[in-house]
Amino acid sequence: MQVTSAIREPLVTGGKTMHDITEDICKRVEEKPSMSWLIAFGFSVVLFIIGCLSLASTWWYGIGVWGLNKTVGWAWDITNFVWWVGIGHAGTLISAVLLLFRQKWRTSINRAAEAMTIFAVLCAGSFILMHMGRTWLAHWALPLPNTYGSLWVNFHSPLVWDVFAISTYLTVSTVFWYVGLIPDLATIRDRAKLTLEQNPLLATDTPAERAEKKKKRRPIAAFAYGILAFGWEGGSKVWARYEYVALILAGLSTPLVLSVHTIVSMDFATSVIPGWHTTIFPPYFVAGAIFSGFAMVLTLMLVTRVVYKLEDYITMEHIDLMNKIVMLTGSIVGVAYITEFFIAWYSGVEAESYAFINRAFGPYWWSYWAMMTCNVISPQLFWFKSIRRNLIWSFVLSIVVNVGMWFERFVIIVTSLHRDYIPSSWVYFRPTIYDVGDYVFSFGLFFVCFFLFAKYLPVINMAEVKTVLNSSDEQAKKLAEEKLKH
Amino acid sequence: MENKKIYWKGFEELTNDLEFVKKAEKEFPDFLPIAEKDEENNTSRRDFLKLMGFGMAAVSLAACEAPVKKAIPYLNKPEDIDPSIPNYYATTYFQDGEYCSILVKTREGRPIKIEGNTLSKVTKGGTSARVQASVLNLYDLERLNSFMDGGKKASKDSVDSKILSALQATNGTIYIVSNTIISPSTKSVIAEFAKKYPSTKHVSYDAVSAYGILKANEKSFGVYGLPNYDFSKAETIVSINADFLGTWLSSIEYSRQYTQGRKLSKEKKTMSRHYQFETGLSLSGANADHRVAIRPSQEGLVVAQLYNEVVGGGSSPITDKNIAEKIKKAADDLKAQKGRSLVVCGSNDVNVQILVNAINDALTNYGSTLSITQANYTKQGNDEEMAKFVEDLKGGSVGAVIFYGTNPVYDYPKGKEIADALKNVALSISFSDRVDETSKLCKFITPDTNYLESWNDAFPTDGNYSLTQPAISPIYPEGTRQAQDSFLTWSGSKNNYYDVLRGFWKTNILKGQAFNEAWTKALHDGVYETNAKVATVVTPKDSTQKETKPAQEVKPVPTTSVAFKGDAAGALSAVSSAYKADNAKTELAIYQKVGLGSGAMANNPWLQEFPDPITKATWDNYALISKSYASQLGVETGSMVKVTVGGSSITLPVIVQPGQQKNTVSIALGYGRISTGKCGNGVGQNVYPMASFQNGSILYAAYEVAVAKAEGKVEMALTQTHQTLMGRGHVREANLTEYNKNPKLIREKYDIFINTADGPKKPTELTMWKGHEEAYNKNHWWGLTIDLNSCTGCGACVIACQTENNVPVVGKQEIINAREMHWIRIDRYYSTDADTSVKSMSNYEKMEDPSENPEVVFLPVMCQHCNNAPCETVCPVVATTHSSEGLNQMTYNRCIGTRYCANNCPFKVRRFNWFNYTNDEKFTTVNFMSQSDLGKMVLNPDVTVRSRGVMEKCSLCVQRIQAGKLEAKKEKRKVKDGDVVTACQQSCPADAIIFGDMNDPESRIAKTIGITKNEQKDIVLEDERAYHLLEEINVKANVTYLAKIRNKA
């Protein structure tokens, strides 16, 4: 069906065969943990423990340990929440929207991106719980039947919309990710089973070979992945249904890509606070979310690519394409920043125009200009192909973008709140060690999850990558034949 | 010896009851089934075990619940105590010269709140922050619960017998050093004591002295008293260093009078004009129409020049053009309004005060705006006698000293000398309720009862008497005793003070009336007015009256006029030589803060956390310096400076204060306590030792002071850090002349319109909200209005609200973290020199800087109870909702603490419980009201104490609304206007706050703001001054403000 231009770069390089793909990806799951993985995982566990200690104090003493005050009621907590939710956007965008647009290059990054999405949304969720004064009553934000009379949630409140949006997003993303995992899990299961008696392939082996293979038995893996694989047997009917499910889930997820951050933006847009009360927020937040999500995928994939030697799967072409998206969304965000300023002036509303002047030149000018530099100026470097295709540049800029996006949320939340309508309440917010500590917690949680994922689950969607493997043209055939001779 | 005791299980064993003996040997009683199946009871052993198991589980579950502590029902219910129904007792507050007639609200026998007594002709229902906070002193954990003998607890009897024998043995003078005593009965007790011990001398001593005025009045009119001022009758008020709205003399009374003269209405189109000449920016200066900064060393000359201008002739000692010009202006106004003007001066120099008297006399003000025939006795301290006492103490001629209501080791300029000499006195007794700086050094402490536990009377001004009655029986009946009873005991009297008091009233004050009825009525009202001749009591060496007057002399009925016989010319020349027109040195002005005053109540956390009306600082005192002086020193707010006067120096932080005279430093008294209790110890620096003596009276200034930058910088605990309005229209103001010419002026200037295709529209016309009219039409529609023209910014409401609503105290660090919990705050804004119409970046920066001598506005802000409340829509769990009567309500139980409501509140009035203030160790010291059994007694049982993680805010005293509604319901009628009074309204000495039902066209609030509905059923405020905060965002507040009008020349 797909017409691929001859001059287009192959999506998988290095003349990989189907078997090579299976080997390359499964090896990481089957091998003993490497030293580099152990170090990275150990580091994230340390982060996680430090974060847990900070979080324990926060919960024990109350959120007064943070730097919040009577005027600035949200700062790092909601900044971090929005930041993580934003990061969590790339996964669904890559797997759902790009699937619908038949962007085949997505196949080698979608698995990790989706995993990242789920972990990022978990981190975001942890901040929703954390920021509450009485976390132990968090379930009251859910429309649960209760014995308090006809007490219901407030459907006017954007926070309730958030609860629905985030939980829906988390559910759909998890299901989508998991459904995509099933064929690959089955592959790993089969490879683990390969050494078992009941495997029909063993029948052809000599007794010596059989004994050799028996030594390599991995019954626990076979059992565990067997359960996770849901009894996948790879028949064409199953494949057909699998593809339908993927398509339906993609269709379901696509609106979510837009809705989640739209709703998060409404936390601010529906308020009366100058700097929050802005109709531009929904598209601007979605663009920002994709921007930061892609940057995070880039950060993670650039590392994974090197550590797991996946250069043939995540090629320069992938990095180039993602950098282009970063550049595009960064520019959209930049336009949004400028539009806000224009509207603030054009509206003639005193508090509104002051809020924006104060953003850029008030006490928090440094955060505003950090945001502008990181989000608007730095992605413009990606106009140069050499920078787009330079690993170091891409890596550094991907981090810069996420720093910038953190500042964007900080700027929106804190600089709008700290000087709103009545000057007597104007204050300057300063974070405390616990603000930082609880942020560290989310990093700990994220990386612990991500490294566990990277070790125990296939980081690249083998089944889908195989479908984009170019195996029918002359050169590919030649390569395959050569391999067979060996 | 062998123990022969025998225990028996019951009378049955003792009497060898047959039945008992049979069963005694059995381990289990018969009725417990031991067999597998008991046919009779149909229960098996298994059932028994099951039940046992269930019982155990049930008990352990039940044990998880918090036990109910100390809920003891009445065996016989006291007649007048009904659970949940408050009782009010009229009584009198008097401390450091501040007199206030009050009602004490008690619940189940515990005083929980102070309200102003509207029957009083003196304070007229007003209170101050200190009066409001005084209820907490009753439950102060630092109060002594035992008599003290040499620093150790001792029994009453042993202390009494030791004191008695020491008193009898002494051959030196027995000094009673008391603060001003306005109770005639107490004086009679002291007189009786003096009769028993003839060597007794009574010295009246005020921590903050007004001796200059007293002496000047004695010289001018032969009356040792303060004049009775009536600011309401004055068209022109000139005040020189007298903060009469804040701390000067009877400021509650003056606030009421002053604001009466400033109020505007449809009928009243005039208001007084107020000139203030002062060093630091005081509360009065902040309210003045014209304020001029002067040096303390110019004070006398300003009065002299004013005298010259008013009386005519004489030289002009003031060389500063600006000051001279303003004096001329003030004098012109004064002369134009003879008999309707008033000059007051805070100086403690007798010569200056004689000149002030001469000016008022020349203006024929005596008899109209002030009266000396109707004198005020709330300050009687005699600095010269006090100095004599200190000399005697040092000289060793003092045999015994009794400190009554005073703490001179702390608050006398030569306190250290007293401390050193006190060791050599044979007998020293203090009545202090705690181990303070003075009582610590005394041999005995016989703790006085709190005023809420005591009987007493008061004679604050001629013609006005009032009574103090206990609202609770003494909390420590064994460890405390009312001072008067102690005096009586030591005089050998068999009477108790209550009998003496009644006897005194019977024979003197209520003479010739049916005593029981009259007494009961006086006790009920708390006040008693009379113009009849009443005997006054004179204690030996009591300067209230002349020494020559015999005890029990009859005071003449006040006559209408007394001729001025002071030596004005002599005073003028004395003043000219004592003061300097332009001193080159830096000078120090010592002042009192509105919250803490003299510092006697320094252990009161409410007052420590009370934001100063001007600086908005809490938990500290500081050196106030002008901006130019600060840049000269290279310091800014928070930098430490060392201030040296003579030999003594203190190091304290700086606050850069607009309005401060350029080369002066102002430092507040009342801080630097070292022995008052955990809350107040070590807060700030003691500046009393820097006061000196001038002309025999204490001078609260120093004409030469060295200020040097010191190491370090601290964060100041300020509740407001932004000083100016940034050109926004939150406080509407106009000048009287222009306003009278065109009342619409204010609306024209401040109303905001939105440009639409159909022309400019009011924000209320463009709305998605359905409105609440339908709901409100059914019943009440509560509203509050605040007259910014009346509000002086004193802050009594802040403490009243805190007391009423159990608002926690959070301590200095949390104030630095901007987390104060006050439900009502008083915003204070300074004017700026920048052009506020230019909205550019550079200009915004300039707008942040206040003027050098700014105009000041106060804006009390509490929850505005918006009809279209932004907080209500955003709460995810419906914890904040709108009532059908216009209230924005908080349901604490439902709140999960997302703080979204606080973020979305455009007024930033919501307060969050960041910590568990009622349990967290960090707050034990400052918030003992919620953390100790004694402190908890002050909590209002009608208001929930909020837990950690919960949002709170002003409820418009919903508990009071409910009480008012219930009362009306019982009487089968609608709530009348005035049935419900909010705590802030009740406390306001300026009558600036009106609460009421806006649906009721006859209510005061509806009439004041002129509320009507136009054709679109839109609410219209008819009064030109009435407005809502932030009308432009259409939140439709139910709190209204009336614009401020100034009367500038």
Mind explaining what this structure looks like?
The complex is a heterodimer of chains A (486) and B (1049). Helix content of chain A is 69%, strand content 0%. Chain A has 18 helices and no strands. In chain A, helix 11 crosses helix 12. With 1049 residues, chain B is an alpha/beta fold. Among the domains of chain B are: 54 residues, no CATH class; 130 residues, Barwin-like endoglucanases (Beta Barrel), CATH 2.40.40; 224 residues, 2-Layer Sandwich (Alpha-Beta Plaits), CATH 3.30.70.20. In chain B, a hairpin with a 2-residue loop joins strand 29 and strand 30. In chain B, helix 6 packs across helix 17 and helix 12 packs across helix 19. The longest helix of chain B has 20 residues. Chain B is globular, with a radius of gyration of 32 Å. The N and C termini of chain B lie far apart (100 Å). About 2% of the residues of chain B have low confidence. The interface between A and B is large, with 55 and 62 residues.
CATH topology-level name of one domain in chain B: Alpha-Beta Plaits
CATH superfamily of chain A: Formate dehydrogenase/DMSO reductase domain
Main sheet: strand order of chain B: 7-6-18-17-16-8-9
Q: How would the global form of chain B be characterised?
A: globular
Structural class call of chain A reads mainly alpha
CATH class of one domain in chain B: Alpha Beta
**CATH structural fold name of chain A:** Formate dehydrogenase/DMSO reductase fold
What characterizes the major β-sheet of chain B? Answer: 7 strands, mixed
Number of discrete helical segments of chain B: 33
Overall mean confidence score, pLDDT of chain A: 86
**Poorly predicted ranges of chain A:** none
Distance separating the two termini of chain A: 33 Å
Total count of domains of chain A: 1
Largest protein interface, residues of each chain: A-B, 55 and 62 residues
Name the assembly state.
heterodimer
